[in-house]
Automatic annotation (TrEMBL):
Boundaries of every FAD-binding PCMH-type domain copy: 73-246
Listed name of the protein: FAD-binding PCMH-type domain-containing protein
A Pfam family it matches: BBE
Gene Ontology biological process: cannabinoid biosynthetic process
Species this protein is from: Linum tenue
Nucleus keyword on record: no
Swiss-Prot/TrEMBL keywords: Disulfide bond, FAD, Flavoprotein, Glycoprotein, Signal
Signal peptide annotation: 1-23
GO MF term list: FAD binding; oxidoreductase activity
Keyword Disulfide bond set for record: yes
Length: 534
């Protein structure tokens, strides 16, 4: 910190207001000043990549998972900083702010709209992939996880120490924990233990002043970053999490049903007779069953809708057979359908990786990029049986795609709505993700596939939340509304803010006004400071 403190007096003399658009000459001057500012911190140039560096594009593209944002049409950062120490993050924030440059912070690069590594205004990319230490304490059942670590690295670290502890987060191993946790990341343990943010004990955050805050010094900010996202408030350095207990042997399963095998009836009964909203009483919290209606090409080269019921049970298969035969007989679950394994092996199962693969596969930080688009919904009332054929027809028109219907209830219905910024708790039956992908290059292919996805989304409109139509922050979708980065407007922010955060949006904006009143941390869907006129 001594090097940092030496330049703070200089920085205080410089403007920190929202930056105007910069011409090329100004950009060159600003990036030179930014670079000199970092050098004043006595930080090595090894953590800084400029466009003239041969490694610039490989570093930039390494963690871009959506090919829509890899091409030359996507604006590139003026520089990439890859910190190896917390002080590098502090310096980047202060130097960018002093030189009227925005920053984008990337932990894993899975954000669906690429807002963590692209901007319509000149910016610095702060890539946290080198900040990925994990310190695990089995005795206290806790871990400190740096924001650049992936879920796979966290799960691997846990499995190397114990087979009776886990963490309730997502099922894609290459997701970075920084953004995933902050947005309310969920996984197949949510009915038993809630979301990732429901199991966060502490955090370290660099604020707009370049100071590092923790739970004891950040006040309401700790509430905000647990479901309100982190990019609007600062740079999350690390999380302290509470690990959860799991049996040595659990059961994973996938039961596939074509529509002509009664899948529509099964799906209807799952919603109607057992009401996913009430699974906390009708299904054990130890059971998570995801329904996945998807378009599949048959061996006869026909496209059909298949519904996969993919699940996990914290116990033995024979006990699950007995339970489901009473509670959900329509599924027709048999003992042969279940696969007993350790909890960490279920991570491989959910990621569609052969369970017999060495666990080191979880350390693969990168995934093959693809063209894709996603949307989301929340459902609070049962979708009528007569509506399902129309939804399946719209699904077929999309082509290669899937939807995920993720049940709530259980622990999700017990946690108070105001406990954290994540607002979608009791009263929700399930959350839906719609996901389409394609392989063709070009604007025409993108428009065609995105248009078909929009049509599917429109077909479901009568059966999901309304006024506003709510959405999940971690399934980022710019069609939920966008704001100007240079001159953000409160009215525009409310459009997407109330979809993502419901009644918590204004509280989040007031916290933003306290910790970042000049709105340094911002993007096209960030939370602006609450306006004084209100």
């Amino acid at each position: 910190m001594s090097n940092l403190l030496l330049i703070i007096p200089l920085l205080l003399l410089l403007s920190t207001s929202a930056p105007p658009s910069l011409g090329l000459a100004h950009q060159s001057t600003s990036i030179s000043a930014f670079r000199q500012c970092l050098q004043n911190h006595n930080h090595s140039d090894a953590v800084l990549y400029l466009p003239t560096n041969s490694s610039f594009l490989p570093v930039l593209n390494a963690y871009i998972h959506n090919k829509r944002f890899i091409g030359p049409a996507t604006a590139k950062p003026l520089a990439i900083v890859t910190p190896t120490h917390e002080s590098h993050v502090q310096a980047t924030v202060l130097c960018a702010k002093a030189n009227n440059l925005q920053i984008r912070t990337r932990s894993g690069g899975h954000d669906y709209e690429g807002l963590s590594y692209r901007s319509p205004s000149p910016f610095i990319l702060l890539d946290l992939n080198n900040l990925r230490r994990i310190e695990l304490d089995v005795e206290t059942e806790t871990a400190w996880v740096e924001a650049g670590a992936t879920l796979g690295e966290l799960y691997y670290a846990i499995a190397n120490k114990t087979n009776t502890l886990a963490f309730p987060a997502g099922v894609c191993p290459s997701i970075g924990v920084g953004g995933h946790f902050a947005g309310g990341g969920y996984g197949n343990l949510l009915r038993k233990y809630g979301l990732s943010v429901d199991n966060v004990l502490d955090a370290r955050v660099v604020d707009a002043r370049g100071e590092i805050l923790n739970r004891s010094t950040m006040g309401d900010l700790f509430w905000a970053i647990r479901g309100g996202g982190g990019a609007s408030f600062g740079v999350i350095l690390s999380w302290k999490v509470k690990l959860v207990r799991v049996p040595e042997v659990v059961t994973a399963f996938q039961v596939d049903r074509w529509l002509d095998q009664g899948a529509s009836d099964i799906f209807y009964r799952l919603c109607h007779y057992y009401r996913w909203q009430q699974v906390s009483t009708n299904l054990s919290k130890d059971i998570f069953i995801r329904a996945m209606p998807q378009v599949v090409t048959t061996p006869e080269n026909k496209t059909k809708v298949m519904i996969s019921f993919v699940g996990e049970y914290l116990g033995r298969t024979k006990d699950l057979v007995s339970y489901l035969s009473r509670s959900f007989p329509e599924l027709g679950f048999r003992e042969v359908d279940g696969k007993e394994m350790s909890w960490v092996e279920t991570v491989l199962f959910w990621a569609m990786i052969p369970v017999n693969k060495p666990l080191e596969v979880l350390l693969n930080r990168k995934s093959e990029p693809s063209y894709f688009k996603s949307k989301s919904d929340y459902v609070t009332e049962i979708i009528p049986r007569e509506a399902l054929p129309g939804i399946w027809d719209a699904l077929l028109k999309v082509g290669p795609c899937f939807t995920q219907w993720n049940p709530y209830g259980g622990r999700m219905a017990e946690i108070d709505t105001d406990e954290a910024a994540y607002a979608h708790r009791a009263g929700y039956l399930f959350k839906v993700q719609y996901y389409v992908w394609w392989v063709e290059d070009g604007e025409e292919a993108e428009a065609r596939h995105v248009g078909a996805l929009d049509a599917l989304h429109e077909a479901v409109t009568p059966y999901v939340t309304k006024e506003p139509r709510e959405a999940y922050l971690n399934y980022r979708d710019l069609e939920n509304g966008v704001n100007s980065v240079e001159k953000p407007e409160w009215s525009k922010a409310k459009v997407y803010g109330e979809k993502y955060f419901k009644g918590h949006f204004e509280r989040l904006a007031k916290i933003k006004a306290e910790f970042d009143p000049e709105n340094f941390f911002r993007d096209q869907q960030s939370i602006p400071p609450f306006p004084h006129s209100h």
